[in-house]
Design goal:
Arc Repressor Mutant, subunit A; 12 strands; Rossmann fold; two-stranded antiparallel sheet; 2 domains
C-alpha cells in the first residue's frame, strides 16, 4: 500500500511550500515506483484564501492525519499568534500513532506548540529563528541549517529549503537513485551544501558573485588535483586577501573548508555505486592520502568511508549507526558549506533515529528511522507567509 502523506492547508497561506509538497508527493515521477498517496487537508473544507488572489478548497479535514504515515505542516498563518487547539491535538495524536511529522519554514511554530520540538534541535526561516526561540524556549533553535531530521520529527528552513527536506524524505524512503531522478526532473540539485546563513541578506555585488562563482566553478572541475587559495584568487582576478573576504561573504566559509566539503561530496557516488578501493577514491577526489580522506570523511559524515559504502551495498540505506549522510557535490557555483551531524540529544519514545542537520561547518546528514536531517531560510512575520 502507498505511503500516505497528509499536508495542511490554511487560510492566508503562501502557495509555494504547499506546491512543493504536492509536486513531490502527488506526481509519480519515477516510473515503476509505488509512489505516495497525498491528501490535502485543513481545519475546514471551505475555500481557503491563498496569497496571490486565489483560493484552495481542501477535500479533507484534520481527520486525514489519522491514516497518514507522514504529516507535513508547510507554515502557519501568523508566527505571533497561537496555534489552534485542534491542530495541536491532531499533530500530537499523529505523532503518538507513529507518523513522521514534518514542518517547512514557519510550520515549526505548530510543531513547537504541540510540544514535539521540546529539548530538540529544530530550524525555521532565519528571520523567524529569534521569535521561535523566544516563544518556545524549550526548543534548541538552530538557525544556520537547511533542515533537521530526528527521524520522527523533521523541520526545514524557509521556502526553497522545503524542497531539500522533501527530497531528503524521498531519498530516505526510496533510496538515492529515485531521489536523484526526482531532482533531475524538477531541475534542482539532489543536495545543496551549506546552511541558510549563506542566504541571509548581505551586500554582495553582482561582480563579486560572478568572480567568486568563476573561481568555484574552476575548482569544481579540478577536485582531483591541487587547488590553492592563490590560484582560486587568480581565477577570480582578485588579491588573496580580497578573495578570502568575498568568498566568506558569498559562502559563509573559507575556500579550504569549501574545497574539502566538495571533495567529500564527490566521494559519495564513488562509495555508493562503485567498488573502487577507498585508497583510489581518495586520490580521485584530491586528498593527499587515504588517511587524510578518512579523517575529513569521518568528520563530515560521522562514519568511515568503508562503513558508509557497506550501508549502500546492503541495499538498506543508512543504518542506525550512521547518524548522518553528507550532501552530494554542488551542481552549480553557489557558495556552500559542509553539513554537520550529531546524535539526537533528546530521543522521545516515538523517535526512530539520530539527528542530522545541514549547516555551516563540515559534517553530515541523515534520514527517517535510522537517519538524521538538515535545515534552511525563512520569511517575514506577516499573515500568509510560511
Amino acid at each position: 500500500m502507498s505511503h500516505r502523506v497528509a499536508v495542511l492547508a490554511f487560510d492566508g497561506m503562501a502557495p509555494f511550500e504547499l506546491g512543493c509538497v504536492v509536486e513531490i508527493f502527488s506526481v509519480a515521477r519515477p516510473d515503476g515506483v509505488d509512489w505516495y498517496d497525498l491528501k490535502v487537508c485543513a481545519e475546514t473544507t471551505s475555500p481557503l484564501r491563498a496569497v496571490g488572489g486565489f483560493s484552495i478548497t481542501p477535500s479533507h479535514g484534520l481527520d486525514a492525519f489519522e491514516g497518514a504515515g507522514t504529516v507535513v505542516v508547510p507554515g502557519v498563518r501568523d508566527v505571533r499568534q497561537e496555534v489552534s487547539p485542534a491542530l495541536v491535538e491532531a499533530l500530537r495524536a499523529a505523532h503518538e500513532r507513529g507518523a513522521r511529522v514534518v514542518s517547512i519554514c514557519s510550520g515549526a511554530f505548530a510543531l513547537a506548540a504541540a510540544g514535539l520540538l521540546d529539548g530538540r534541535e529544530a530550524t525555521t526561516h532565519w528571520r523567524y529563528a529569534p521569535l521561535l526561540k523566544t516563544r518556545f524556549p524549550e526548543v534548541k533553535v538552530t538557525p544556520d541549517v537547511l533542515y533537521v531530521d530526528h527521524g520522527d520529527v523533521l523541520t526545514s528552513a524557509g521556502s526553497a529549503a522545503g524542497l531539500d527536506l522533501l527530497l531528503h524524505l524521498v531519498r530516505t524512503d526510496h533510496g538515492p537513485t529515485v531521489a536523484n531522478a526526482v531532482a533531475r526532473r524538477l531541475v534542482v540539485a539532489p543536495h545543496r551544501e551549506g546552511g541558510q546563513a549563506q542566504f541571509i541578506e548581505t551586500p554582495v555585488t553582482p561582480t563579486e558573485e560572478d568572480a567568486v562563482g568563476r573561481a568555484m566553478e574552476w575548482a569544481l572541475t579540478r577536485l582531483g588535483g591541487p587547488i590553492s587559495v592563490r590560484e582560486m584568487a587568480r581565477q577570480a582576478a582578485m588579491s588573496e586577501r580580497s578573495f578570502l573576504r568575498h568568498f566568506a561573504r558569498k559562502s559563509g566559509t573559507s575556500p579550504l573548508k569549501w574545497v574539502i566539503g566538495q571533495r567529500v561530496a564527490a566521494s559519495l557516488p564513488l562509495l555508493e555505486g562503485t567498488t573502487t578501493p577507498v585508497e583510489e577514491v581518495a586520490v580521485a577526489c584530491g586528498f593527499e592520502s587515504p588517511v587524510t580522506f578518512r579523517h575529513h570523511f569521518t568528520r563530515a559524515m560521522k562514519t568511515s568511508p568503508s562503513t558508509y559504502r557497506r550501508a549502500f551495498q546492503t541495499g538498506g540505506g543508512l543504518p542506525a549507526e550512521i547518524p548522518g549522510r553528507g550532501r552530494t557535490h554542488e551542481e552549480n557555483s553557489a557558495g556552500v558549506r559542509d553539513p554537520v551531524a550529531g546524535q539526537d540529544p533528546a530521543r522521545s519514545r516515538g523517535a526512530r533515529g539520530g539527528l542530522v542537520r545541514q549547516q555551516a561547518a563540515p559534517e553530515g546528514q541523515g534520514g527517517r528511522g535510522e537517519r538524521p536531517v538538515q535545515a534552511g531560510p525563512a520569511a517575514t512575520a506577516s499573515a500568509g507567509e510560511s
